[in-house]
Every structure is written in C-alpha cells, then in structure tokens.
Amino acid sequence: MKQICLAALFLLLVTTTASCKPLELVSTEFAPYVFTEKGQIRGVNVDLLKAIFKQMNMEIHIKIIPWARALYILQNGYADAVFPLFKTRERTLYTDYSDAFTTENTSLFVLKNAPIQWNGNLNDLSGYRFGRVRGYSSGPKIDRFIKNNTIRLDEVNKTENNIKKLLAGRFDIMIEAEYVALFELQKMGRSDDVRMLAVIQKNLSYLGFSKKRKHLSIISRFNEILKKMKKDGTYQRIVDNFFQNSPLK
Fold first, then answer.
1. Cβ contact 23:80 at 8 Å
2. What does the pLDDT read at residue 17?
3. Which whole-number Å values give the CA distances from 152 to 91, 145, 147, 231, in the listed order?
4. For helices 159-167 and 178-188, angle between their N-to-C axes, nearest 10 degrees
5. How far apart are alpha carbons 210 and 213 in whole angstroms?
6. Which residues in the chain show pLDDT less than 70?
7. Which long-range contacts (C-beta less than 8 Å, at least 24 apart) are formed by 14-21?
8. Which long-range contacts (CB under 8 A, 24 or more apart) does 225-229 make?
C-alpha cells in the first residue's frame, strides 16, 4: 500500500510540474501579426494569444524563427504550437487546430510602374515570375495555382527579402498577406514603389498544435475562451487597440 501511495504521489507531482510548464509557441516575422521590435515580440496575434491564455491561467513562451523551420518543429513535436497557421491537407497529418482566431488577405504585389494587369484569372499570370516566403501556404487558390502551373517561383526566408527581390526586378509578382506586405513596405520606406495588384482570397488562420504533444483538452478550452472573448467584445477591443494608431487601419 505504501508503495502504491508513493507512486500516486510521484505521478501527481510530475503531472503538476508538467501543467505549470509554459507552452512553447513558435512563429516567424510576420508583422503586424507577429514581429520583433526592440527585443520584444509584438503583434496583434501576440496580443490576442496572451489574452486568451491569461484567461486560461496558462503561461506561454513565443519564439521567432524562419517559417520552414517552424513547420519542421511542429511536425516533429519540438514545440507545442505554431501560429498563424493556415489549414492544408498535408498539415492536418501532424497538426491539431484551434478554431480560427484571425484572418489574412492573400494578395499579389507588383512594382508601381509594372505593366501587369489583373483580369480575375490567375492562369493569365502564369508567364510571370513569382516570389513567396519558403514554406508558406497562401490559401487554396494560390496553392493550387502554383501546384498546377509550371511557373517560376523564387522562395526566400522572410518577407523583407522578398520585397528586396521584387524591387530589384528578380521576379515580377510577390505573393504575400496584405497587411504584412504593407507594414513591411512602410517600415522600409518603399510604399510608393509597389502597388497591390489584387486580393486573391481571405484566409482563416489558426493556432496549430503538434499532434505529438497531445493538447486536445487545451485546444477545447482555448476555443471556449476565444468564443467568449468574441461574444463579450474583448476580442475586437484588443484588435482595435493594436491598430488604432496604425496607418494600415
């Protein structure tokens, strides 16, 4: 009996210790959703996640890394979750998703004086060279277009490098989330040199948990809090507070 009690006590201590451990979340430089400024990780997604997990009485630790590495870490269970993450068939094999907590407009950008026009048909752009961040999904429409067409696709590790290549004429059309591109162009002082060709689609983005970490109960609680915050207005207040002084609003 004594051995059984000691085993039960040990199990309780291990479980309690594990539950107190901060959740490890990873993302990439994706301003204004998540970015590093003066050594601090900021962004509207960061503010939302901090508010949700605070109500869950859970501590989180966020790390910024290249996106392709973030997906590798998620797939292999080296961190608890990745954000902001689109749903794809491939990712569902190793990801348990929360409910969607933000949206992103996938857009196409070209140089301001480029003769490229948008007629609503992606296939008519297949003769141009495209640029995108390595490892990104851009939503079903763009992903299918890239998969089904023989196009020239230049991939880099982050949006800033993508913009530099577009400005240098290394490719013709940049694929990027609308606010991310506008935010980065403004920071670089190059907003007048690039124009948005088209918004292709609005995508839902999620907090994606590694299946190997088995966090279904946390996801369920996360979804409850997210729903509550949207209903009582807390969610929108956080978003408005972040963007109230932003020229992108």
1. yes
2. 39
3. 24, 12, 11, 45
4. 70
5. 6
6. 1-20, 245-249
7. 20/59
8. 225/52, 225/55, 225/56, 226/52, 226/98, 226/99, 226/101, 227/99, 228/55, 229/51, 229/52, 229/55
Strand partners, 30: 34
Helices H / strands E in the chain, number of each: 8, 11
Q: What is the pLDDT of residue 229?
A: 98
**One-letter amino acid of 22:** P
Contacts 24+ apart (CB under 8 A), 227-231: 227/99, 228/55, 229/51, 229/52, 229/55
**What's the pLDDT at 243?**
81
* Per-residue pLDDT at 149: 81
Cis peptide bond N-terminal to 66, omega within 30: no
Characterize 108-130 residue by residue with b for buried, 16 or more Cβ atoms within 10 angstroms of its Cβ, and e for exposed: bbbbeebeeebeeebeebeeeeb
* Torsional sign, CA 247, 122, 102, 183: negative
| Contact yes or no for 142/197 (Cβ under 8 A) | no
- Name the one residue in this structure whose structure tokens are 């501590």: 59
pTM of the model: 0.78
What lies within 8 Å, CB to CB, of 55 at 6+ separation is 225, 228, 229
